[in-house]
Design goal:
- The protein is of the alpha/beta class and 382 residues long.
- Helices cover 36% and strands 24% of the residues.
- The chain has a 7-stranded mixed sheet, sandwiched between helices.
- Strand 10 and strand 11 form a beta hairpin.
- Helix 1 runs parallel beside helix 6 and helix 6 packs antiparallel against helix 7.
Length: 382
């Protein structure tokens, strides 16, 4: 009998599996893919906190600088003294987490698609054409942006779902680069991140031309003949007000535990997975898996990481309405010596709002074109 069924074998789901299995509960991960970690779902650029949290050995690059490009070609080149980011081999990273889960006693069933979750927590699973059912005590929805668990339970949905496309490109140029341009990636940005023998170059956009815009960018850089392949996906954004039901909870992308300004979800998802595991283990020990009991998970993750999501959603609402002229002015101001030094010293990809006060102190002129954005990040009470 499976006591904990985790739908989805990504980092958040595998982290939960390791924790619940270590506590002695029969744990099964149901993953629809046939290989853990493939295809790669993100560029792998994360803060060193992810390394500290997981002890991963899957680091492939330690970038020393990052370049932020404005629409007109202004460049903010950041060269911090301390390590601010690392690049993970996402396939290796996910496999590491899977191995830890298995060593802890969890079972991982690949090629297993969950079609629905009934009101009484029964899972309808299809594997190699055969249909089966599971009746676990707790179901964990770690099945991504289009979560079947979330939809079956009628839990909160993302407020925004951004289509994203990435290309794996064979190139020797290894800089981390971000491109801000409403004509290229409206409402978001384009990224270039080193990956093994090349780069992952991708973008997310609200204008419905994501693939074509990426292709046009690659052609403009003379990279169209160096494309190894494309991957597509979605980035779920939102400030969810419901993430649990009787015997059910959501983690990771399923719960929109994603940074709205960057689309990164590894750190937040892993943190939420640890909180959820702790609450589930306690609930199982008490033989109380009711919604009321599992609400402790919702309150705790909202308290610990939810404020960063809510601030990010407010900031993004303002950011996406900035014109290309505004973006040019922003980069011109930030590339000046004092604000550039502030970003290099205090920049934090997990907590970008922490830059606001020191930047305003150094460059009050930022308020001229980003006043609403700044004020949204300084909203009292969060």
């Amino acid at each position: 009998m499976t006591e904990v069924a985790i739908v989805g074998g990504g980092p958040a789901g595998l982290r939960v599996a390791e924790r619940t299995a270590s506590a002695g509960y029969e744990t099964t991960v149901l993953e629809k893919k046939r290989v853990i970690g493939k295809p790669i779902q993100c560029a792998g650029l994360v803060s060193p906190r992810v390394v500290s949290l997981t002890g991963t050995d899957s680091i492939i690059e330690r970038p020393k600088e990052a370049v932020i490009n404005s629409p007109s070609g202004e460049q903010l080149v950041l060269e911090p003294d301390e390590e601010k980011a690392v690049i993970l081999d996402r396939t290796s990273f996910d496999k590491e987490l899977a191995e830890k889960a298995i060593r802890s006693g969890a079972k991982i069933e690949l090629g297993s698609t969950v079609r629905k979750v009934t009101n009484d927590g029964e899972l309808h699973v299809e594997r190699e054409g055969e249909k089966t059912t599971l009746n676990p005590k707790i179901v964990v929805g770690a099945d991504g942006p289009t979560s079947v668990v979330r939809q079956s339970e009628g839990l909160s949905s993302p407020q925004v779902v951004l289509p994203a496309v990435q290309a794996l490109v064979a190139t020797k140029e290894k800089k981390v680069q971000i491109h801000l341009d409403n004509d290229l990636a409206r409402g978001f940005f384009l990224w270039e991140v080193p990956y093994r023998a090349g780069k992952v170059i991708g973008l997310a956009s609200e204008d419905g031309r994501t693939y074509q815009n990426l292709l046009n960018f690659l052609k403009s850089k003379g990279l169209e003949d160096k494309i190894i392949g494309f991957l597509s996906g979605t980035i779920p954004l939102g400030d969810l007000n419901r993430s649990v039901e009787d015997g059910v909870l959501l983690v990771g992308d399923s719960a929109c535990q994603v940074k709205p300004m960057s689309g990164g979800g590894l750190y937040l998802g892993l943190k939420a997975a640890d909180i959820g595991s702790e609450v589930m283990i306690e609930a199982l020990e008490e033989d109380d898996i009711s919604k009321r009991r599992l609400e402790d998970y919702h309150r705790r993750w909202k308290s610990e990481i939810g404020k960063h999501i809510s601030k990010g959603m407010r900031a993004r609402k303002i950011f996406k309405n900035l014109s290309n002229d505004d973006l040019d002015s922003l980069i011109k101001t930030l590339k000046e010596e004092k604000p550039k030094r502030v970003i290099e010293e205090k920049g934090d990809i997990d907590h970008p709002s922490r830059l606001v006060k020191p930047l305003l102190k150094t460059s009050p002129e930022l308020l001229k074109f980003t006043g609403p954005l700044i004020k949204s990040l300084l909203k009292p009470g969060e």
